[in-house]
Write a structure and sequence with these properties.
Elements: H1 6-15, H2 17-22, H3 29-36, H4 40-46, E1 50-53, E2 65-70, E3 76-84, H5 89-106, H6 117-148
Parallel strand pairs: 1-3
Antiparallel strand pairs: 2-3
Helix pairs in contact: 5-6
This protein binds zinc ion.
Zinc ion binds near residues 97, 101, 121 and 124.
Length: about 150
């Protein structure tokens, strides 16, 4: 039995995106919502504001994002999220990333909110990484065992 520690998992993930497509087919939106632990009012607000694209293709990644809308006074008035359907760790991480952006925007609705892109990206990446680590601890080592058992 090979035990995969967190560092190994993070390195594998960094060097081989394909790994993220191969593992995590049991991750659900529920898992992500539980992990993020944002209030129910946020998820209720998002209803009807999320497009889930059924694609793993690289081309599609350019559409994924969290899009703010502003009224004529420059007040943040709404948001829209485009994410892939959750199929594996890779698509799950994009969801985690975008929901983090969406939550940050949600908390500034009704304000003249100027997004700090650098901070916002850093937070979203941190949240992704935290999800990866949690995943590595709970499921990732099981996956590596399966790969090396035959
Ligand atoms: Zn981002």
């Amino acid at each position: 039995m090979i035990f995969m520690d967190i560092d190994t998992f993070v390195k594998l993930r960094a060097f081989d995106d394909a790994i993220m497509d191969q593992i995590g087919d049991d991750i659900t939106l529920d898992d992500i919502q539980t992990f993020l632990s944002y209030d129910t009012s946020f998820w209720n607000y998002l209803k009807g504001k999320v497009s889930r694209v059924d694609s793993n293709q690289n081309d599609a990644k350019y559409f994924y994002g969290t899009y703010p809308s502003y009224d004529s006074n420059g007040v943040l008035s709404g948001l829209y999220v485009i994410v892939p359907i959750i199929k594996n760790l890779g698509t799950a991480l994009i969801n985690v990333h975008e929901y983090r952006h969406a939550y940050d925007l949600y908390n500034h609705l009704g304000q003249k909110y100027v997004i700090n892109q650098l901070d916002s990206e850093a937070l979203a990446k941190e949240t992704e990484e935290a999800f990866s680590l949690k995943y590595a601890l709970s499921k990732g080592s099981k996956w590596l065992d399966e790969q090396t058992s035959d």
